[in-house]
Amino acid sequence: MSPTRGSGDRPGPGDGAWRGDVAAGVAAWTGEPPEDPVRAGPAADPEEVARKILLDQLTGQARSRKQLADKLAQRNVPEEIANRLLDRFEEVGLVDDEAFAQMWVDHRQSGKGLAGRALAQELRRKGVDDAIIKDAVATIDPEDEAAAARRLVAKKMRSMGGLDRQVATRRLVGMLARKGYSASMAYAVVREALDASGADPDDDFAEGAP
């Protein structure tokens, strides 16, 4: 029969049961298993962490400097490190707000049919400087913008059969306004499309028309 350990006896470091009791007690106290200092390794270098965040953010998609700065701030990267790395990324061309703005305008204008005003609003929300936005939006050909408006109206009209001209005009002009088109261009394009469709020209929606 094994001798009974007294209350004053202390288990030795080789006592596996005792070690298990300690680990269980720590886990119960903290709510999670104790961290192994060997497996945890040294603390990560903040600059390396920030660099990895930037590269991950830029993989497959361009972003503005402001977007990247916001992401670094969300990940608690010190501002000094963030600015230093963003400056370095700009020097090598990985961060370029001018190129980003031009790419955004080209893609969204041709793909979504957005007008310059809507594109400028989107770029401002991404933190791009107004001077850069102005230059990028100025590259839009007015004929391309008008053609995009016509395509949007033609597509929308396919789902508007049976509406009288006033209602159709109001809805089509409103749709173009949300895409950033001026009132003058919106009414001109809508009137042209409705005339071509055979809608009664005497039934125009007059409010706000040029």
TrEMBL record:
Chief localization: cytoplasm
Region (Disordered): 1-45
Subcellular location: Cytoplasm
Limits of the RecX first three-helical domain: 50-88
Residue stretches making up the RecX third three-helical domain: 143-190
Alphabetized UniProt keyword annotations: Cytoplasm
Residue span, RecX second three-helical domain: 96-136
Alphabetized InterPro entries for the sequence: RecX_HTH_1st, RecX_HTH_2nd, RecX_HTH_3rd, Regulatory_RecX, WH-like_DNA-bd_sf
Family stated for the protein in its record: Belongs to the RecX family.
Function statement: Modulates RecA activity.
Protein name: Regulatory protein RecX
